[in-house]
């Protein structure tokens, strides 16, 4: 018919299983991948944890309790908690300040600051500890001056704290930087136009938006502080009952063939790690529930 518009037929939309062939796999492939992932998880994570607990209780509860209550073990536990109590708040303050500066302001040297924050991730902890020995040791740059003023850093608590600070300081900042970049600066700018001060903006606007990421970074920082071995091993001097943290105490017991005692102390670190994991999972669920 003249003047009419010829419409081409619309091809039928295919429905059913054939439309998902590009995005699905055969059932046997799915179960094979799940099985392989489960085997790796059991072999690398679950089995070592079970072995630690079995070896710790191999000679009975009496030996287990004795290993945890001996003076050297208590000293190592108290030192571990003390180091974590010092380093985690300091790294929290640094991480929040660094993330705030990097995400809210434009300035020269921002890339260099981010690189310095990531530096402990690219350096071996042992090398990090050696750096502080070369700086603060008796033959280091400041060694003679420290000895002259009777200030002891290496093979003492200050050296352990400094080494742990170096190893753990990226965690809080690295958790907050992507989060604060994603949030942008619109809310802070709106608060400025309303006359809010810098501290008021931080406490009322920024902190509520980053609280879950901040807590997550604090948990990771605390876990690394309590479990750090390499850098602390270099700067501690392995003085039994004085500068040994829990990981170092485990090594000493194992080297002395006190296997049950070493696994008992290791189980204490395992309990702390599991508590950290549960707290991290709980915070993750809380953050998801709050967003929903």
From TrEMBL:
The chain crosses the membrane at residues 31-54, 74-100, 112-133, 153-173, 259-279. Keywords: Cell inner membrane, Cell membrane, Membrane, Sulfate transport, Transmembrane, Transmembrane helix, Transport. GO terms for cellular component: plasma membrane. One of its GO terms (molecular function) is ABC-type sulfate transporter activity. It comes from the Bacteria. The complex is composed of two ATP-binding proteins (CysA), two transmembrane proteins (CysT and CysW) and a solute-binding protein (CysP). This is Sulfate transport system permease protein CysW. It comes from Paenibacillus polysaccharolyticus.
């Amino acid at each position: 018919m003249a003047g009419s518009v010829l419409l081409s037929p619309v091809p039928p939309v295919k429905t059913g299983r054939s439309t998902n062939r590009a995005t699905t796999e055969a059932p046997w492939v799915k179960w094979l991948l799940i099985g392989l992932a489960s085997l790796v998880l059991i072999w690398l994570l679950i089995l070592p944890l079970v072995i630690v607990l079995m070896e710790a209780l191999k000679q009975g509860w009496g030996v287990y309790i004795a290993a945890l209550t001996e003076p050297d073990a208590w000293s190592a536990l108290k030192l571990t908690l003390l180091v974590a109590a010092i380093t985690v708040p300091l790294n929290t303050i640094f991480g929040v300040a660094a993330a705030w500066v990097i995400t809210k302001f434009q300035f020269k040297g921002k890339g260099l600051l981010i690189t310095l924050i990531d530096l402990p991730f690219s350096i071996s902890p042992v090398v990090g500890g050696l750096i502080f020995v070369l700086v603060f040791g008796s033959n280091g740059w400041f060694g003679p001056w420290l000895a002259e003023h009777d200030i002891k850093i290496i093979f003492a608590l200050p050296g352990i704290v400094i080494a742990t600070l170096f190893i753990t300081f990226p965690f809080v900042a690295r958790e907050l930087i992507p989060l604060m970049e994603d949030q942008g600066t619109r809310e802070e700018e709106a608060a400025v136009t309303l006359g809010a001060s810098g501290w008021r903006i931080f406490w009322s606007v920024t902190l509520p938006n980053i609280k879950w990421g901040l807590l997550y970074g604090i948990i990771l920082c605390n876990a690394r502080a309590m479990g750090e071995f390499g850098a602390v091993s270099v700067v501690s001097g392995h003085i039994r009952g004085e500068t040994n943290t829990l990981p170092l105490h485990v090594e000493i017991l194992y080297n002395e063939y006190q296997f049950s005692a070493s696994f008992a102390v290791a189980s204490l670190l395992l309990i702390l790690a599991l508590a950290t994991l549960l707290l991290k999972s709980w915070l993750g669920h809380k953050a998801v529930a709050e967003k929903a």
